[in-house]
Specification:
Blueprint lengths: L1 H56 L5 H36 L2 H4 L4 H6 L18
Helix pairs in contact: 1-2
Length: 132
Amino acid sequence: MQLRQTELRLQRATNQVRVDVKTNLINLEQARARYETAVATRQLSEQNLDAEQKRFNYGVGSVALVIAAQQQVASDQDAEIQSMANYTHAKIAFDDAMGRTLEVNSVSMDEAKTGRVQRDSVIPANLPGGGK
Protein backbone atom coordinates (compact mmCIF):
# COMPACT_ATOMS: atom_id res chain seq x y z
CA MET A 1 0.00 0.00 0.00
CA GLN A 2 2.82 2.44 0.92
CA LEU A 3 4.68 1.57 -2.27
CA ARG A 4 1.59 2.34 -4.36
CA GLN A 5 1.11 5.69 -2.58
CA THR A 6 4.75 6.58 -3.18
CA GLU A 7 4.40 5.67 -6.86
CA LEU A 8 1.30 7.85 -7.12
CA ARG A 9 3.10 10.81 -5.48
CA LEU A 10 6.01 10.35 -7.87
CA GLN A 11 3.65 10.24 -10.86
CA ARG A 12 1.84 13.36 -9.61
CA ALA A 13 5.14 15.19 -9.19
CA THR A 14 6.29 14.11 -12.67
CA ASN A 15 3.03 15.30 -14.20
CA GLN A 16 3.30 18.62 -12.38
CA VAL A 17 6.83 19.15 -13.70
CA ARG A 18 5.61 18.46 -17.25
CA VAL A 19 2.74 20.91 -16.84
CA ASP A 20 5.05 23.57 -15.36
CA VAL A 21 7.56 23.21 -18.20
CA LYS A 22 4.87 23.37 -20.91
CA THR A 23 3.15 26.33 -19.25
CA ASN A 24 6.39 28.24 -18.90
CA LEU A 25 7.39 27.43 -22.49
CA ILE A 26 4.08 28.82 -23.75
CA ASN A 27 4.51 31.90 -21.55
CA LEU A 28 8.04 32.39 -22.89
CA GLU A 29 6.91 32.12 -26.52
CA GLN A 30 4.04 34.56 -25.92
CA ALA A 31 6.32 37.02 -24.13
CA ARG A 32 8.80 36.87 -27.00
CA ALA A 33 6.03 37.54 -29.52
CA ARG A 34 4.76 40.48 -27.45
CA TYR A 35 8.29 41.88 -27.27
CA GLU A 36 8.78 41.59 -31.03
CA THR A 37 5.41 43.28 -31.56
CA ALA A 38 6.38 46.10 -29.19
CA VAL A 39 9.65 46.65 -31.08
CA ALA A 40 7.81 46.83 -34.40
CA THR A 41 5.21 49.20 -32.94
CA ARG A 42 7.90 51.51 -31.59
CA GLN A 43 9.68 51.50 -34.95
CA LEU A 44 6.44 52.45 -36.72
CA SER A 45 5.87 55.26 -34.21
CA GLU A 46 9.36 56.57 -34.88
CA GLN A 47 8.69 56.50 -38.63
CA ASN A 48 5.41 58.35 -38.06
CA LEU A 49 7.21 60.96 -35.94
CA ASP A 50 9.79 61.44 -38.67
CA ALA A 51 7.02 61.91 -41.24
CA GLU A 52 5.17 64.41 -39.02
CA GLN A 53 8.38 66.38 -38.44
CA LYS A 54 9.03 66.53 -42.20
CA ARG A 55 5.45 67.64 -42.85
CA PHE A 56 5.86 70.35 -40.22
CA ASN A 57 9.17 71.48 -41.72
CA TYR A 58 7.48 71.85 -45.12
CA GLY A 59 4.62 73.85 -43.60
CA VAL A 60 1.99 71.13 -44.07
CA GLY A 61 1.79 69.71 -40.54
CA SER A 62 1.17 71.21 -37.14
CA VAL A 63 3.05 71.37 -33.86
CA ALA A 64 0.20 69.45 -32.21
CA LEU A 65 0.68 66.50 -34.58
CA VAL A 66 4.44 66.47 -33.96
CA ILE A 67 3.90 66.56 -30.20
CA ALA A 68 1.30 63.78 -30.42
CA ALA A 69 3.73 61.67 -32.45
CA GLN A 70 6.48 62.32 -29.89
CA GLN A 71 4.16 61.25 -27.09
CA GLN A 72 3.28 58.08 -28.99
CA VAL A 73 6.96 57.22 -29.45
CA ALA A 74 7.58 57.70 -25.73
CA SER A 75 4.58 55.53 -24.88
CA ASP A 76 5.71 52.82 -27.29
CA GLN A 77 9.24 52.93 -25.85
CA ASP A 78 7.77 52.36 -22.38
CA ALA A 79 5.72 49.43 -23.70
CA GLU A 80 8.82 47.95 -25.34
CA ILE A 81 10.81 48.17 -22.13
CA GLN A 82 7.98 46.58 -20.15
CA SER A 83 7.64 43.77 -22.68
CA MET A 84 11.40 43.15 -22.51
CA ALA A 85 11.14 42.89 -18.73
CA ASN A 86 8.20 40.50 -19.06
CA TYR A 87 10.17 38.40 -21.56
CA THR A 88 13.12 38.28 -19.17
CA HIS A 89 10.86 37.17 -16.31
CA ALA A 90 9.33 34.48 -18.54
CA LYS A 91 12.82 33.25 -19.48
CA ILE A 92 13.82 33.07 -15.83
CA ALA A 93 10.65 31.12 -14.98
CA PHE A 94 11.26 28.72 -17.88
CA ASP A 95 14.86 28.12 -16.82
CA ASP A 96 13.62 27.50 -13.29
CA ALA A 97 11.00 25.00 -14.50
CA MET A 98 13.69 23.22 -16.53
CA GLY A 99 15.98 23.11 -13.48
CA ARG A 100 18.81 24.86 -15.26
CA THR A 101 19.00 28.25 -13.54
CA LEU A 102 22.53 27.67 -12.25
CA GLU A 103 23.77 26.35 -15.60
CA VAL A 104 22.25 29.20 -17.63
CA ASN A 105 23.79 31.75 -15.29
CA SER A 106 27.16 29.97 -15.21
CA VAL A 107 27.02 29.46 -11.45
CA SER A 108 29.49 26.93 -10.13
CA MET A 109 28.73 25.18 -6.87
CA ASP A 110 32.47 25.12 -6.11
CA GLU A 111 32.63 28.91 -6.51
CA ALA A 112 29.52 29.27 -4.34
CA LYS A 113 31.10 27.16 -1.60
CA THR A 114 34.33 29.16 -1.56
CA GLY A 115 32.62 32.51 -2.08
CA ARG A 116 35.03 33.40 -4.89
CA VAL A 117 33.95 33.90 -8.47
CA GLN A 118 36.57 33.34 -11.15
CA ARG A 119 34.95 35.53 -13.85
CA ASP A 120 33.71 39.08 -14.30
CA SER A 121 30.00 39.79 -14.17
CA VAL A 122 28.53 40.67 -17.56
CA ILE A 123 25.12 41.32 -19.04
CA PRO A 124 24.00 38.19 -20.96
CA ALA A 125 24.40 38.42 -24.72
CA ASN A 126 21.14 36.54 -25.32
CA LEU A 127 18.82 39.39 -24.34
CA PRO A 128 16.01 40.20 -26.77
CA GLY A 129 17.15 42.66 -29.37
CA GLY A 130 20.76 41.43 -29.24
CA GLY A 131 21.61 43.07 -25.91
CA LYS A 132 20.97 46.61 -27.14
